[in-house]
Automatic annotation (TrEMBL):
The keyword Aminoacyl-tRNA synthetase does not apply. It comes from Clostridium scatologenes. InterPro entries: DUF554 (IPR007563). The chain crosses the membrane at residues 6-23, 35-56, 68-87, 108-128, 198-215. This is Transport protein. The lineage of its organism: Bacteria, Bacillati, Bacillota, Clostridia, Eubacteriales.
Length: 242
């Protein structure tokens, strides 16, 4: 059944968040802080691994790199577009609207929890490739693996950031669901190269999110999201030139 992976991932986020909220009041501030740092380090290495997998190849027994210029152009052009659109402001606004709707105005960490968690569980190779596989073949095995990882992440985040984390389930449902739905129709026209390029650019953004979690906000990752679209434009231009 196509789309089942998205449903499983969404449920995992809701349950993990619920458990994290249960432990919130019983967890000391120092424990919350160290768990956030640990989670940030884990996300950093997930981002590094995904990026290197897309950029490093073996040729005649030698390590070579590829996609360096694509990564640079994707991040620079994508960030420029995102800053012009001010996507992060829109995400913060969405978080504030949800916060008001559920009447938790006193929760100062609601928006931060919603935005940061949404970025972490949505961006990256597993979300993109897993949703595409689900849409193409009905193979949701990668999204199940991602669900386990997300379960742990949101459990920790909910214990430190509160209710906002649970509402990231909306973001994951819309994001992965949309990719799966679109892939059903356009998937046969997507090449493996494009999928790989989108994945490693997404992993680079995950690295930035991890740094934000571990060290405090250093990158406006929301405004960098259009970088995920640049590999598609690059592919179109390359095919046109050929």
């Amino acid at each position: 059944m196509r789309g089942l992976g998205t449903i499983i991932n969404t449920i995992a986020v809701i349950i993990g968040s619920g458990i994290g909220l249960f432990f919130k009041n019983g967890m000391k501030q120092k424990m919350q802080h160290i768990l956030m740092q640990a989670c940030g380090v884990a996300v950093i290495f997930i981002g590094i691994t995904g990026t290197l997998q897309g950029m490093i190849t073996m040729h005649n027994g030698k390590i070579e790199t590829k996609g360096t210029m694509l990564l640079i152009f994707s991040l620079v052009i994508g960030s420029f577009i995102g800053q012009m659109l001010d996507i992060e402001k829109w995400l913060d606004g969405l978080g504030e609207k949800i916060k008001s709707a559920v009447r938790v105005k006193e929760d100062n960490q609601f928006v931060e929890g919603f935005v940061n968690t949404s970025l972490i569980i949505c961006i990256g190779a597993m979300a993109i490739v897993g949703s595409i596989q689900d849409g193409l073949k009905g193979d949701y095995s990668m999204l199940i693996a991602k669900s386990i990882l997300d379960f742990v992440i949101v459990l920790v985040f909910a214990s430190t950031h509160g209710l906002g984390v649970m509402f990231s389930a909306i973001a994951i449902f819309m994001y992965e669901g949309s990719i799966t739905f679109l892939t059903v129709f356009i998937g046969p026209f997507l090449g493996n190269t494009l999928i790989e390029n989108m994945s490693f650019v997404g992993s680079a953004l995950i690295l930035c999110v991890g740094i934000n979690i571990a060290l405090g906000k250093k990158f406006n990752v929301g405004n960098m999201l259009p970088a995920l679209l640049i590999p598609g434009v690059y592919e179109l231009i390359s095919n046109f030139i050929k």
